[in-house]
Amino acid sequence: MTNLLPPRGPQRTLALAQLSNSVGDGAYYVTSALYFTHVVGLSPARIGLGLTVAWAIGSVVGVPLGRLADRRGPRGTAVLLALATAAAVASFLVVRDFVPFLAAACLYASAQSGLAAARQALLAGLVAPEERTGTLAHLQSTLNAGLAVGAGLGGVALSLGTNAAYLTVFALDAVSFLLCAYVLTRLPAVAPVPPAEGAKLEVLRDRPYALVTLLNTVLLLRMPLLSLGLPLWITERTEAPEWLVSALFLLNTGAVMLFQVRTARAVTGLATAARAIRGSGLLMLLTCGVFALSAGAEAGVATAVLVGGSVLLVIAEMRQSAGSWQLGFDLAPPGRTGEYQGFFGTGVTVARTLGPLLLTLLLIELGAVGWLLLGGLILAASYALGPASRWAAATRPAPEGVLA
Fold first, then answer.
1. Does residue 333 sit within a domain?
2. CATH number of the domain within which 353 lies
3. Is 229 within 8 Å of 98 (Cβ atoms)?
4. Domain co-membership, 268 together with 296
5. Are residues 207 and 155 in the same domain?
6. How far apart are CA 144 and CA 129, in angstroms?
7. What does pTM read for this prediction?
8. 277 shares its domain with 333
């Protein structure tokens, strides 16, 4: 069990902050759709429009907020953004119309995007370069543990189905971010970095880093695959039971919680990161091929195939995550971690925004052929990341943590 915990000190405090708000987030994720329809009273179309607009704004705002963390100090910025997130979630308790909902959603998405970038800058200032990927693996395990607990609490609210139960979940999420802000204040302060003369949002002009971010975004299509692609595939194209959707989610969450740290130990620099990502691409192609075989099979066979494919998927996910964390940090110039991580993190938002449309087209409309196209796309991006990262490394002097 101790292997699941990061070392004492700042790393463990960062994990505690992650745990504190991930429990609330887990409850939020499983109840938000029904809360916005049943309690707020919005149509699914308006909910989708509002959240798409909000996350699009959040992805843009994340970069300047990350730069703010570099210039004003990441600890104070992270605390303020955690408080802003708490205020956004709390405002959902009282909004009952589309315009206030949209405003609250924009504040929520912007604060979340900025908080992620500020946390990365804080981690970079408190953790030695050679320990960052391992620390992020611990944080990912903590995140999944918190999400699993929160999802269980959200499941209780769903089973009750009352307005009071939904309101309690959102209040819990708001409190979790207040607790996160408090825990972040227990960390040592990281000195702000003075801005370089004449440099403004340098990351927007850094073409090699932009290419690395774009290719990583393609790899992140695995995120909506688990939350949307597979559930739709199971219910629309296979004979497998619907409860398997929940079981596969728990399988993924548990595996990441237990094995992400061990998987990340092999990633120590750009070369090992590129190797891990290439391996994840090959596994994703195999995964997609296995999932395609579940179409038309009888229920027992389809279930076994889907479970096997999900095991391959989570292994690929853990390898890709470890490699991408290393690339994102190693290729960020010293003193610009927040700004660069804010930009690198837009890949998550883009994948979550555009991924559902692409996956629906590929998997539901094209079937088995769509699975193979998806696997081929991810494989191509995984192999292209190696040359792209070497190009990026060659354009900057001695990036942090890069091994000669």
1. yes
2. 1.20.1250.20
3. no
4. yes
5. no
6. 24
7. 0.79
8. yes
Asked if residue 297 and residue 212 are part of one domain, the reply reads: yes
**Which one, of 339, 69, 331, 401, lies nearest residue 203 by Cα?**
339
- pLDDT per position as a tens digit, 165-194: 989 999 999 999 999 999 999 999 888 877
379 and 235 both lie in a single domain = yes
Span 314-330, pLDDT tens digits? 999 999 999 999 999 88
Degrees to nearest 5, angle at CA 110 with 106 and 111 = 115
- How far apart (Å, rounded) are the C-alpha atoms in residues 198 and 143? 38
Specify the number of domains making up the chain.
Answer: 2
Q: Check if the beta carbon of residue 35 is closer than 8 Å to that of residue 159.
A: no
Q: What is the largest CA-CA distance in the chain?
A: 66
d(CA 53, CA 59): 10
pLDDT digits (tens, 9 = 90+) for 116-162: 889 988 998 898 888 888 888 888 888 888 888 888 888 888 888 88
> Smallest Cα–Cα separation from 119: which of 219, 3, 222, 21?
21
Q: Residue 165 contacts by C-beta under 8 Å, 6 or more apart in sequence?
A: 156, 157, 158
**Cα(349)–Cα(328) distance, integer angstroms:** 16
Distance (Å, whole) CA 273 – CA 256? 18
Q: Please determine, for residue 208, whether its predicted confidence score (pLDDT) is greater than 90.
A: yes
Cα 269 from Cα 208, distance rounded (Å) = 18
What is the number of other CB atoms lying within 10 angstroms of the CB of residue 298?
10
Task: Kindly state whether residues 181 and 207 are assigned to the same domain.
Answer: no
**Which is nearest to 258 in space by CA: 182, 145, 390, 360?**
145
Domain containing 305: what range? 202-394
The gap between the terminal CA atoms of the chain, to the nearest Å, is 35
The answer to whether residue 206 is domain-embedded is: yes
Instruction: Give the torsion through C-alpha atoms of 391, 394, 396, 399, to 10 deg.
Output: 90
Report yes or no on 344 lying in a domain: yes
